[in-house]
Amino acid sequence: MARTQPRLTEVDPVWKRICAEAEAAVEEEPLLGSLIHGGLLHHDGLEDALAYRFALKLSSGEMSEQLLREIADAAYAADAGLCKAARADLMAVYDRDPACHRFIQPILFFKGFQALQAYRVAHHLWSEGRRDMAYLIQMRVSEMFGVDIHPAARLGQGIMIDHAHSIVIGETAVVGDNVSMLHSVTLGGTGKEEEDRHPKIGDGVLIGAGAKVLGNIRVGCCSRIAAGSVVLSEVPPHSTVAGVPAKIVGEAGCDQPSVTMDHRLRDCGCDGD
């Protein structure tokens, strides 16, 4: 008799850890039992949990939870890359955010992670030609989470958006892998041009709170943009820029600034030392 292949969820250490954390959380805080069972323990895998959360948070009188759940389920079934990206995003938050102590926190409580996963479903729909539905999801994500990412924008994996309030990412923006950004970041245009008009952010970039990167410019890999900066010109790889308008003030200071999350400006006369 042929041996039955194990289901993915039976050999998935990430999902097993999520479930173990969820069970422990219910014991610690029984009043959250319904939320945690409904959001995590009731499901067979991460894809199901993400689809449930997507539908629960974005449903409205204009689009029911049931219809949104069907849309999300179909997207995850059609594109394995969605859950692969979600796992990378989850690990990014866990590794880089000192406020994140368990895998269940981003899924249940962190709007940056939830908004990013909703964008990924909208981007899938956009790529399939379902643009009005993608716009609807963009609108609801903006209303619910204060995060406005155009569904045509292209975002890589391992993205962390910390706090995530007032994030704006335009239609032709490209964000590489393993990028970290804080609240109030804008990746925007500089006028009414209709073609390729938004920034291209390289892998491993750290973007500080309130930074604005404007226009079709490139920000090189593993660079840092200081909080409150306005970037209007190209940023070389492995460098730090700061100011309004932003200027190069030194090197990035490490190989992976988006992972170390060190926003301090050293050896550039900017920190008062």
Automatic annotation (TrEMBL):
Pathway: Amino-acid biosynthesis; L-cysteine biosynthesis; L-cysteine from L-serine: step 1/2. Gene3D superfamilies: Hexapeptide repeat proteins, serine acetyltransferase, domain 1. InterPro entries: Hexapep (IPR001451), Hexapep_transf_CS (IPR018357), LbH_SAT (IPR045304), Ser_AcTrfase_N (IPR010493), Ser_AcTrfase_N_sf (IPR042122), Ser_O-AcTrfase (IPR005881), Serine_acetyltransferase (IPR053376), Trimer_LpxA-like_sf (IPR011004). It comes from the Bacteria. Residues 14-118 form the Serine acetyltransferase N-terminal domain. It is an enzyme of class 2 (transferase). One of its GO terms (molecular function) is serine O-acetyltransferase activity. Its EC number is 2.3.1.30. It catalyses: L-serine + acetyl-CoA = O-acetyl-L-serine + CoA. SUPFAM superfamilies: Trimeric LpxA-like enzymes. Keywords: Acyltransferase, Amino-acid biosynthesis, Repeat, Transferase. This is Serine acetyltransferase. It comes from Rhodovulum adriaticum.
